[in-house]
Design a protein that fits this description.
With 278 residues, the chain is α/β, with parallel strands linked by helices. The protein has two domains: 18-109 and 190-261, Rossmann fold, CATH 3.40.50.1000; 113-187, Alpha-Beta Plaits (2-Layer Sandwich). The protein has eight helices and twelve strands. Strands 5-4-3-2-1-10-11-12 form an eight-stranded mixed β-sheet, with helices on both faces. Strands 6-7-9-8 form a four-stranded antiparallel β-sheet, covered by helices on one side. The protein starts with 17 loop residues before the first helix and ends in a 17-residue tail after the last helix. The protein binds magnesium ion (MG).
Length: 278
């Protein structure tokens, strides 16, 4: 099936031969961050729907026999499933703790008891200093969201929360990380790099591995595939990153996905299916 009109393939900055190399791989993994990559940021977090045209293109890619398609997000799995709409690929939420596999099965891991206690402390500590309205408790993290606030005020709140959480994060097996639109304290041992590693291990040998993301939390994934695949960062090409390529913005991601959907399909006998439960 062809998705849209055939257009010139979009340039991936820093990877001039990307499409030629990709076409030579019979099997491919395409893993995608959600917020800031497939969907524009939105102050109302549950209004952050995919960019126009993206769901239809993802549907086309998910039917390709040569491609395993996955969304990898820090959001809880349930939120991604609601926002991304009908989506047949793999969905990974909470930085790898929650997965909906290609088979439709849902696999949920839980943080350790000490980490869960630490997260409860982090939540109440942030509430005690008046940040209750900005706090979100997730399965393996507590996030402080500052999108929509005055930038100076946002920075002040993020600094306060980060300082507060760093004081006890180590002894609870937690770490404090910034993200686009806030800061969070989360269980260590769960990041997008680990989630991507698991996806790569489920692929046939010789596959192409591609990951798109826009944020600092995506750097773990870029590092994971730096030597064997293609990390592509969405946004300003001047930023320090472990990604090897850049796309300037979400419309460019849409064009990238459309080009992927229209690639010639290699003569595989059957669709590859990621089935391994890590
Ligand atoms: Mg993002």
């Amino acid at each position: 099936m062809r998705i849209g009109r055939k257009k010139k393939r979009p340039k991936v900055i820093g990877l001039p031969d990307f499409w030629d190399v990709l076409s030579r791989h019979e099997t491919k993994l395409l893993a995608l961050d959600y917020d800031g990559t497939l969907a524009p940021f939105c102050v109302q977090r549950m209004q952050a729907y995919p960019y126009p045209g993206v769901p239809r293109i993802l549907e086309g890619i998910s039917r390709r026999r040569d491609t395993v398609l996955a969304i990898v997000s820090g959001r809880p799995l349930a939120e991604v499933l609601i926002l991304a709409g009908p989506f047949d690929g793999i969905v990974i939420g909470s930085h790898g703790m929650e997965k909906r596999l290609a088979t439709g099965d849902i696999v949920i891991k839980t943080a350790e008891q000490g980490q869960i206690q630490g997260l409860a402390c982090a939540q109440s500590a942030a509430e005690e200093i008046g940040l209750r309205e900005l706090i979100e408790l997730k399965p393996a993290s507590v996030a402080l969201h500052t999108r929509g606030l005055d930038p100076k005020e946002a920075e002040r709140f993020e600094d306060r929360a980060a300082r507060l959480w760093r004081a006890f994060s180590d002894r609870h097996g937690l770490e404090v990380r910034r993200f686009n639109g806030g800061v969070e304290v989360r269980a260590t041992g769960w990041n997008k790099g680990d989630a991507l590693e698991e996806l790569c291990r489920g692929m046939p040998a010789g596959s192409a591995y591609v990951y798109l993301g826009d944020d600092d939390t995506d750097e773990d994934a870029f590092r994971t595939i730096r030597t064997r695949g293609y990390g592509i960062r969405v946004g300003d090409a001047g930023r320090p990153t472990a990604a090897r390529g850049f796309l300037p913005d979400i419309p460019a991601v849409r064009d990238f996905l459309e080009a992927w959907a229209n690639l010639a399909i290699p003569a595989l006998k059957e669709k590859i299916l990621w089935i391994r439960d890590g």
